[in-house]
Design a protein that fits this description.
Blueprint: E1 8-12, E2 28-32, H1 39-59, H2 69-101, H3 109-136, H4 142-203, E3 214-220, E4 223-228, E5 231-236, H5 239-245, E6 251-255, E7 258-261, E8 265-271, E9 274-279, E10 284-287, H6 289-299
Helix pairs in contact: 1-2, 2-3, 3-4
């Protein structure tokens, strides 16, 4: 029987000029996720059908307990897969139509699934008596058999459709979570790239053999000592100008003549009452009283 899930996704679209940062707001609109019928979907749905066929074969409901096990299995196999051929397209296309026709208060996946399952059960109820007659030769009055046929189809078809609906919804939620994770990682990379652009401009002023990951800056008279993981180099530059270039970079000032990159701080230690930061290259950076509180806050030092 049919197993098409209809879920709702909210998509927000906004037009912006300039650079779009990671935490931008997105206006979401209702949009149905259209399920693609491919080999993977059919296989997944078929596994649900087979599982229920096995269950019905063991249980043998509707007075079938005297029927041979293998005969009951063939009957339910044909009955259930016939239902799949009817339920799948009926629920799929009817749900799409209902998404554009139902009033907003009733327009949700559960209501659409219920209504489309009722219609699919009605269609299946017209064919089920012929399958029953094919196996058991007990064709009674066709029209009188339709109410019971509908109830049986609605119970079995509705149950399997509900299981398939939950399965598909969980799968789509997992896909959405994976997509959101990938988007977040991409946005974080973009933010990190934007933050490092000013530092790169400063690094580019160093000799090629000294260009690398920024560690710290030290003001020495009129020269600025720039330390990277490749070494250090003196530049004729004001400390203030360097800090301006690094205002978006993830780092902080520890002293009137020192600045450090946060991710380059390897450890910290105390020398008397003074706090010393040990950088990844082994350089020891003093922390003055003026910048002590901020340094402890940034590094989480108590």
């Amino acid at each position: 029987m049919a197993f098409v899930s209809c879920t709702e996704n909210f998509v927000k679209t906004t037009k912006k000029t300039g650079v779009q940062l990671a935490n931008r707001e997105i206006n979401q609109q209702k949009q149905e996720l259209i399920k693609k019928w491919d080999a993977k979907d059919i296989l997944s749905d078929s596994l649900v059908v087979v599982a229920f066929v096995i269950f019905l074969t063991f249980v043998r409901p509707f007075g079938m307990h005297e029927i041979a096990f293998w005969y009951a299995g063939i009957f339910w196999l044909i009955m259930c897969f016939s239902g799949y051929v009817i339920y799948s397209p009926t629920i799929y296309f009817l749900s799409k139509w209902l998404s554009n026709s139902l009033p907003e208060s009733l327009n949700n996946a559960a209501v659409r699934l219920l209504l489309s399952t009722c219609v699919a059960s009605g269609i299946m109820a017209l064919f089920a008596p012929f399958i029953i007659n094919l196996f058991f030769g007990s064709f009674q009055n066709y029209w009188q058999s339709l109410p019971m046929s509908f109830l049986a189809c609605f119970f079995i078809g509705g149950f399997i459709s509900g299981v398939s609906f939950i399965k598909s919804m969980l799968f789509q939620q997992r896909q959405q979570l994976q997509q959101n994770t990938e988007q977040l990682a991409q946005q974080n990379e973009q933010v990190e790239s934007i933050q490092k652009q000013p530092a790169q401009a400063l690094i580019n002023e160093l000799p090629l053999d000294k260009r690398g990951q920024l560690i710290c800056l030290q003001m020495d008279d009129h020269y600025l000592n720039i330390m990277t993981d490749k070494g250090e180099h003196l530049l004729l530059m004001r400390f203030k100008d360097a800090l301006t270039k690094l205002e978006r970079y993830d780092g902080f000032q520890t002293h009137r003549s020192w600045w450090v990159a946060k991710d380059a701080v390897a450890s910290s230690k105390k020398e008397g009452r003074k706090l010393i930061l040990v950088m990844s290259n082994g350089t020891e950076v003093p922390v003055s009283q003026t910048y002590l509180a901020n340094t402890k806050s940034v590094l989480g030092i108590k």
